[in-house]
């Protein structure tokens, strides 16, 4: 009798657990042609939990044809569940003065379980020399 | 006696509970964690999101840098609103126009009637036409698609933009940003 009552409950728990695990499988070429210009970066971690779940893999930078700094950040979801977050790209000129415009808007994004993802930002003006990218996890 | 102790505790707990639910008025920034997400409506952060995607792609493409006249002159053309809500398209075109101006790669043609009148007067006084024709026009469209499954509703807003070469009459650059929202009711967060 007890097993009869527990079985549907266990199935429900198992079902919920399995639907929560939508991870990403991927395939890519082994011999890479493109060379990423990796940028030494320093991280300020105030949410260690989020950093454990979604790690920053690396930062590489390039310049557009028009001389604008373009930064790409690699993220890796180290869990099997989706994570939603908000990211903001901040830009600074050679004097360290912050330059804001629509390029500095906070943008919502998500990363699926086990997914590796790139985010990129383009500097608003050629005067931008430095950057900072902020991440906040959704509640 | 017991009731005398319990009653104030219950009252206090009730008060704490209700004061926790109330939200006092406070200033917020457009892209903060408390943004309101409406499933069937374009929210203010959606305009910023779409404009950001458009500007990022436009500046990265280098199309403005390839213009024979530097900085390129852009005229903001028509943005067609194909959604069920009234949209002031300046909410998005102005963001793009500010970003283009700030980048130093483009100037936008003014829509200010006073400035246009003065420019025409200057032309008349100098007896020569100095009006510079635009190198590009910026056009676009906002499309809404609604899907339903039971009480769950999914609305997708497609923001399409194109930079048209005014001399060649071709699209020199185009981008589409889709913003999808799904749920049964509006919520606060992201």
Report the CATH topology name of chain A.
Immunoglobulin-like
Helicity of chain B, as a percent range: 25-40%
Strand element count of chain A: 7
Query: What's the total number of strands of chain B?
Result: 7
CATH class of chain B: Alpha Beta
The secondary structure category of chain B is alpha/beta
**What is the overall pLDDT average of chain B?**
88
Classification by helices and strands of chain A: alpha+beta
The CATH superfamily of chain B is identified as ABC-type transport auxiliary lipoprotein component
Main beta sheet of chain A: 4 strands, antiparallel
Poorly predicted regions of chain A are none
User: How many helical elements of chain A?
Assistant: 2
Radius of gyration of chain B: 25 Å
Q: N-to-C terminal Cα separation of chain A, in Å?
A: 40 Å
Word description of this protein:
The complex is a heterodimer of chains A (139) and B (190). Chain A is an alpha+beta fold and 139 residues long. Chain A has one domain: Immunoglobulin-like, CATH 2.60.40. Helix content of chain A is 17%, strand content 39%. Chain A contains 2 helices and 7 strands. Chain A has helices at 2-19, 48-53, and strands at 54-63, 69-77, 83-93, 98-99, 107-111, 116-122, 128-137. In chain A, strands 3, 4, 5 and 7 form a 4-stranded antiparallel β-sheet that branches. A 3-stranded antiparallel β-sheet of chain A has the order 1-2-6. In chain A, β3 (83-93) and β4 form a beta hairpin. Chain A starts with a helix and ends with a strand. Chain B is an alpha/beta fold and 190 residues long. Chain B has a single domain, classed as Rossmann fold (3-Layer(aba) Sandwich). Helix content of chain B is 35%, strand content 32%. Chain B has helices at residues 2-21, 44-61, 90-103, 113-126; strands at 36-37, 72-82, 106-108, 136-149, 152-165, 170-183, 187-188. In chain B, the strands form 2 sheets. A 5-stranded mixed β-sheet of chain B has the order 3-2-4-5-6, covered by helices on one side. Chain B has a two-stranded antiparallel ribbon with strand order 1-7. The radius of gyration of chain B is 25 Å and the shape is elongated. The A-B interface holds A 64-66, 68, 70, 84, 86, 88, 99, 101-103, 105-108, 120-122, 124-126, 136, 138-139 and B 29-33, 45, 48-49, 51-52, 55-56, 59-60, 62, 64-65, 95-96, 98-99, 102-105, 189-190.
């Amino acid at each position: 009798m007890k097993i009869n009552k527990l079985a549907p409950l266990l199935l429900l728990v198992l079902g919920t657990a399995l639907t929560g695990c939508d991870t990403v499988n991927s395939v890519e070429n082994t011999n890479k042609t493109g060379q990423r210009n990796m940028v030494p970066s320093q991280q300020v971690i105030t949410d260690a939990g989020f950093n454990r779940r979604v790690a920053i893999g690396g930062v590489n930078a390039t310049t557009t044809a028009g001389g604008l700094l373009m930064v790409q950040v690699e993220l890796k979801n180290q869990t099997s569940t989706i994570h939603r977050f908000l990211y903001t790209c901040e830009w600074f000129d050679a004097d360290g003065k912050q330059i804001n415009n629509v390029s500095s808007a906070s943008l919502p994004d998500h990363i699926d379980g086990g997914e590796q993802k790139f985010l990129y930002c383009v500097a608003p003006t050629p005067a931008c020399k430095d950057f900072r990218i902020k991440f906040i996890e959704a509640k | 006696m017991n009731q005398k102790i319990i009653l104030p505790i219950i009252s206090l707990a009730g008060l704490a509970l209700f004061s926790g639910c109330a939200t006092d008025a406070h200033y917020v920034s457009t892209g903060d964690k408390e943004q309101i997400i409406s499933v069937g409506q374009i929210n203010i952060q959606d305009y910023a999101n779409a404009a950001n995607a458009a500007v990022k792609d436009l500046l990265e493409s280098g199309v403005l840098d390839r213009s024979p006249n530097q900085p390129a002159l852009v005229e903001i053309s028509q943005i067609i609103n194909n959604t069920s809500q009234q949209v002031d398209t300046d909410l998005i075109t102005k963001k793009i126009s500010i970003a283009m101006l700030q980048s130093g790669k483009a100037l936008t043609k003014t829509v200010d009637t006073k400035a246009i009148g003065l420019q025409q007067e200057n032309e008349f006084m100098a007896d020569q036409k100095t009006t510079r024709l635009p190198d590009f026009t910026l056009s676009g469209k906002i499309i809404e698609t609604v899907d339903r499954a039971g009480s769950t509703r999914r609305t997708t807003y497609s923001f399409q933009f194109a930079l048209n070469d005014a001399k060649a009459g071709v699209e020199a650059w185009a981008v589409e940003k889709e913003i999808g929202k799904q749920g049964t009711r509006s919520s606060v967060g992201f």
